[in-house]
Design brief:
- The chain is mainly β.
- It is built from 2 helices and 10 strands, in the order αββββββββαββ.
- The protein folds into 2 domains: about 20-105, Immunoglobulins (Immunoglobulin-like), CATH 2.60.40.10; about 115-163, no CATH class.
- A 4-stranded antiparallel beta sheet has the order 3-2-5-6, with no helix packed on it. It has a 3-stranded mixed beta sheet with strand order 4-1-7, with no helix packed on it.
Length: about 160
Amino acid sequence: MKHLSLVYYLVGLAFLSYGQSGRVSGMVTEGTSNQVVSGAKIEVKSKTTGAVVNRVLSESNGSFQLTALPYGDYRFTVTLISFDTIIKEVKINKPELTLTIKMTGSLEFDEVRVIGNVVKDGPVPVAVTKISTQKNSRGIRLQGFTHAIKWNSWSVCYPIRRR
């Protein structure tokens, strides 16, 4: 009878631990100044399967949140252009976990290439110019452009041939 109750206890314990998940939240900051880092990509991979479980970007205030991560071992990879890649091994074994990720270093580029296409025949299909919202609200007419669409403080103008 003792062995049977021990088996029931172990099976019950296994069911309780199965399906448990945790929430990981935290901040991404710059290592030396402690300024918040927004737009950092946080990728979570399972250490057992190697599969990507979740991805998230840090918010404008540097915070991030990952929910419903099953208990287990994970590898967090944090990347952002001009910073060194950060890899953290994380064990989730409780409902809430808080991380602080400090981005360090700076990648320097030898070369930056800007690639564009030249239109040889006909007018350029799209021209983009920055026009302040105040100038747009006063109704300034753009010569040669009869159609302008306002998007935030940017205006995209499409040339239409006059007849």
